[in-house]
Amino acid sequence: MFSYSLFRKELREHRWLLLIGTLVLTALGIFSAWSFDMLAMYGDMLQGFMPQLAEQFEQLLADYNFYIWSQLHPKNLLQFGIVLALILASTDLAGEVNRGSIQYLTGLPISRRTILITKSAAGMLSLSIIVWVSTLVTLVTAELLESGILWGKMLAATALLNIGLMAVYSFTLIFSALGNDAVKTGALAAAVLLIWSAAGLHPTTQFLSPFWHMKGINWFMGTGPFPWLSLVGLIIFALASLYIADGIFSKREF
Questions:
Q1: CA dihedral 85, 86, 89, 95 (to 10 degrees)
Q2: Closest CA relative to residue 95, chosen from 189, 173, 168, 21
Q3: From 125's CA, which of 165, 168, 203, 213 has a CA 20 to 30 Å away?
Q4: pTM confidence score
Q5: In the chain, how many domains are there?
Q6: 78 exposure class (CB count in 10 Å sphere: 0-12, 13-18, 19+)
């Protein structure tokens, strides 16, 4: 059910994406932690010129922990994490087909389910490393600059988002199992997710959007408990997507 040699091969192939993704998100996180005081200064300057914009700045900068969370999770990690998940999943299977290496891969003395599970494990691990390294460096930087970081809440929010990105990865894997080209596969999955995300724009339908669940905004702002249902729902969604991708990949002829 698991191939360690294939797992190591996948991690080697992910190394540049892993390095670049970690560096970019870490740099953005450090900038977010550092920019709080600078934005506070601009907020004071805007008070006399653009009071409406200044009011938005005031809400954003009212609490350092909320500011760090708003920049790190709903923006940097969510947006860049989705792009990384799309790239990793779309190249896993459709990329092998496009390169013509799928026949060799499926000809190895391992089952297709083993191939899917091993590739998924490597992709999700790479995604998780990027998320957690960039998060931890950001939080350490924020603690050094301002102190008083709510570590437990920040790490819990990161875990929720990490599971959500795994769900996005697993969903994209369905398209990868069907496709022959990684770019087209990733673009199609991205288009479906973009349309799906529109559900999160209205309060009555936001529960239908996985991205709304990934943010856990009501819990972080103190208006609700930790979203355990969202966490469990994202896990079920990820497992169901993997099951569907496995069924498609197992029956497909190459």
A1: -140
A2: 173
A3: 213
A4: 0.91
A5: 1
A6: middle
